[in-house]
C-alpha cells in the first residue's frame, strides 16, 4: 500500500510539472519579438491593428472592406513597403497589449499618445490632433460637466475619456463597454444620458444622428494621435517616422482628410484643426 501511495504521488508530481511547463510555454507564446522589415517583406504582409467600428476613422463598409482616416494611412505604409496590409480588428482596451506583445506590427487605431501608454509601446510622430467631447440627446443636451452629476456617462474601456473622468470626476457614474458599437447602442437605447470619447468621433457621429448634439466639444488638454509599435522596434519606428515626414511634401494627411473625413464633417470642421502634417504641431 505504501509503495502504491508513493507511486501515485510520483505520477501527480510529474503531471503537475508537465502542466506548469505547458502553462509557461503558453505564456511565452503570448508575447513574441517584433518582426524586422526584412521579415515583413518576406511574409508579404504588414500586420496592422485597427478599429472596425469607429467610423470615419476605422470601420468596415457595406462591402466588407476596411475604410477610414487610419486605414488610408495604413494602406500607404504597406504599399511603400511593397506588401499588403493585413488588418486585425481591435477594441480600445486591448490596443496597448497587441503592440506590446507583438501580435501586430503597427497600431493605427485612433491611438492617443499618453505618458502611461508610452511606457509600454513606442509612438511614432503624430498625424492628428484631438480632445475629449461629450454627445447627448438634443432635447436633454449636456453642455457642462456639472450637468453630468447624478447621470450615467457612457465610455469605452481603455480610452482617454475613461481615464479623464475617472481621475478628474470620480463623482460621475461611468457605464463602460468594450466596443464602440456597444457604446452607441447604449446611448440610443437610453441606458446612459451621454457618451464621451474623442471630439472628432462624437462630432462625426452626431452629424449622422441629428437627434443628438455634441454639447461639450473640448475637455482636458489637447492630445495627439500617433502610430505605435512594440517597444524597441526602432527600425519600423524610423520607417513610419520617415513616411510621415516625407508625406508632408504632398500634404498627404490633408488628402486623407478630404477622402475620408470631409464627406462626414462637410464645412463644419476646419481640417487644420485636426490634421498634422510631417509630425509637426
UniProtKB/TrEMBL annotation:
Annotated GO CC locations: extracellular region; outer membrane-bounded periplasmic space
SUPFAM superfamilies per the UniProt record, alphabetical: Periplasmic binding protein-like II (SSF53850)
Cleavable signal peptide: 1-24
PROSITE patterns: PROKAR_LIPOPROTEIN (PS51257)
GO terms classed as biological process: amino acid transport
Keywords: Signal, Transport
Domain Solute-binding protein family 3/N-terminal: 45-264
Any Pfam family: SBP_bac_3
Family to which the UniProt record says this protein belongs: Belongs to the bacterial solute-binding protein 3 family.
The protein's name in its UniProt record: Amino acid ABC superfamily ATP binding cassette transporter, binding protein
Gene name per UniProt: cjaA
